[in-house]
Amino acid sequence: MIGKSNLIDVIVGTNRGLLVNAAQQQAILAAIANLEDFNPTPHPLAASNLLEGNWRLLYTTSKALLNIDRLPFYQLGQIYQCIRVETNSVYNIAEIYGIPALEGLVSVVAKFVPVSQSRLQVKFQRSIIGLQRLIGYTTPGKFIQQIESGHFQKKLAFDFPIQSQQQQGWLDITYLDNDLRIARGNEGSVFVLSKT
């Protein structure tokens, strides 16, 4: 699809939105809106086979995510949003690189409830921050398996509950196909992700 390849082309070189200027951002947002008009999955929450999986972030306007790159001596690596439809779970995982052997990880675990055919109500439950080597992180999938099986090494990471009622929001899935997903959040952020 021309709109899809056009979106990927305008995103290239922006480092997920960290290196975008105003003109590029306008072009990206226009390409996103154009692609959303041709969403092949108008009821994305009914297409659990497409929604399920590990998604890598290609672009976002989310300041909360992009500001992770401002940690001293570190830079933001890959960011994943992993969706497990059967358990209504979302795992946001940000890899952080910098000082050798001290690569970090910031993760937030949330539960979701479908509230329409395209909107998820999301409630954040838990945050995990640690060093990749100490917690045995190798891939998002294996990390999630550790958490879900209860074999996660809590003593080697900061693992704390998120209890505030204000730590919730919603996410509209505005485009979904076999390997690309676009979503818009309650804070006005847009997310473009590819399935890994």
Short description:
The protein is 24% helix and 39% strand. By secondary structure, the chain is of the alpha+beta class.
Task: Walk me through this protein's architecture.
The chain has helices spanning 2-11, 22-36, 48-51, 63-66, 132-135, 140-149; strands at 53-60, 75-84, 89-97, 104-114, 119-131, 157-161, 168-176, 180-185, 190-195. The longest helix is centred in the first third of the chain and has 15 residues, at 22-36. 24% of the residues lie in helices and 39% in strands. Helix 1 (2-11) packs antiparallel against helix 2. The chain starts with a helix and ends with a strand. It has 196 residues and is of the alpha+beta class. Strand 2 and strand 3 (89-97) form a beta hairpin.
Helix-strand layout with pairing:
Elements: H1 2-11, H2 22-36, H3 48-51, E1 53-60, H4 63-66, E2 75-84, E3 89-97, E4 104-114, E5 119-131, H5 132-135, H6 140-149, E6 157-161, E7 168-176, E8 180-185, E9 190-195
Antiparallel strand pairs: 1-2, 1-9, 2-3, 3-4, 4-5, 5-6, 5-7, 7-8, 8-9
- Beta strand count: 9
Q: Uncertain spans, ≥5 residues at pLDDT below 50?
A: none
Oligomer: single chain
For the largest beta-sheet, the strand count, sense and barrel status come to: 8 strands, antiparallel, barrel
Amount of helix: 10-25%
Radius of gyration, whole Å: 17 Å
The assigned structural class equals alpha+beta
Q: State which percent range the strand residues make up.
A: 35-45%
**Which outline best applies?**
globular
Give the H and E element order.
Answer: HHHEHEEEEHHEEEE
Distance between the termini: 19 Å
Q: Overall mean pLDDT score? A: 91
Major β-sheet strand ordering: 1-2-3-4-5-7-8-9
Helix count? 6
